[in-house]
Amino acid sequence: MKYALLRCCTTPIFLKQYESSTDAVFRTIGVELVDIQEFNCCGYPIKNLSHEAYLVSSARNLALAEQRGLNLTTICNCCYGSTKYVDHVLKQDPAKRRQTNLVLEKENLHYDGNIEVRHILDILYNDVGLDVLKEKMVRTFKNLKIATHYGCHLLRPRKIAQFDKADSPHIFDELVGITGANSITWKEKLECCGSPVWGINDNLSSDLTRKKIKNAWESGDEYLCVACPYCKLQFSRVQRMLLPMKGLDHQLPSILYTQLLGLCLGIDADLLGIHQNELDISGIVNFLTLM
């Protein structure tokens, strides 16, 4: 299996551990992730400024992946949602596709719509499969309670995202479950983390984050598990600020799914970047047990 990997603009700066843990996990399970140096931003930041520029940004990435005959995958829910949307528009609207390709032709690029946009969780679940992942594990978690956070762009809009059932998803929970951890039911599970409005309405953003953390904690969870860079930053940097500002009297650390899975695959904690998280998650290794 081989895929073109769109890494996300945020990860090289703020979440290097997401990149290193993803590389390590996919290398361990025998899936090749191809870096295309010409990849650019998915275009999401300029969506409300220029829809045409937004389309071209993601279309360019799609064209570069198609040129190499590879489906495009990403570690970022926002990149996934943006690229999935643009792919949908270009496949459904011939006029938009022609207009966008006119711009791409300046770089001798063209997108015909012959590839798919995938999230790494989708690949792990549907292409690799739970059974294969379990076969490669050397240890699992015991008595670990996890609050699985899907993230908005992975599920909505449902007709475009097509990752899972938007109102009752199960894929991420099952991926967490094979590690031996218990994915606990909690009320705020499918609500927004607050990241999209951070910098625009910080009070609203922090209130949304606080509400999720409080509910997950009250549901008995010990860690949040995420697969989106922006959600991860919200549950680390913003949560750390919330502790003194909003009266939170406890921390609920978050762990990336590739870190959670990587520990079960026997990958070194330093390579997974366990100690690079802003809120300490090193204690999670105490829940591991040999198979």
Molecular structure report:
With 291 residues, the protein is an alpha/beta fold. The protein has two domains: 2-119, Up-down Bundle (Glutathione S-transferase Yfyf (Class Pi), Chain A, domain 2), CATH 1.20.1050.140; 130-290, Rossmann fold (3-Layer(aba) Sandwich), CATH 3.40.50. The protein has 14 helices and ten strands. A four-stranded parallel β-sheet has the order 2-1-3-4, with helices on both faces. Strands 7-6-8-9 form a four-stranded parallel β-sheet, sandwiched between helices. Strands 5-10 form a two-stranded antiparallel sheet. Helix 12 links the parallel strand 8 (223-226) and strand 9. The radius of gyration is 19 Å and the shape is globular.
Task: Describe this protein with a few key phrases.
globular, 2 domains, single chain, Glutathione S-transferase Yfyf (Class Pi), Chain A, domain 2, Rossmann fold, 4-stranded parallel sheet, alpha/beta, 291 residues
Outline:
By secondary structure, the chain is an alpha/beta fold. The protein contains 14 helices and ten strands. Helix 12 links the parallel strand 8 and strand 9.
The largest sheet has its strands arranged as 2-1-3-4
* First-residue to last-residue Cα separation: 27 Å
Query: Hey, roughly how much beta strand do the residues contain?
Result: 5-15%
Q: Which radius of gyration do the C-alpha atoms yield?
A: 19 Å
> Could you estimate the helical fraction of the residues in percent?
40-55%
**Class per helix and strand makeup:** alpha/beta
Name the poorly predicted regions.
none
**CATH architectural designation of the largest domain:** 3-Layer(aba) Sandwich
Task: Give the beta-strand count.
Answer: 10
For the residues shown, what is the average pLDDT? Answer: 95
Sheet with most strands: 4 strands, parallel
Number of helical regions? 14
**Element string (H = helix, E = strand):** EHHEHEHHEHHEEHHHEHEHEHHE
**What is the number of domains?**
2
Approximate shape: globular
- Determine and state the CATH class of the largest domain: Alpha Beta
* CATH fold title of the largest domain: Rossmann fold
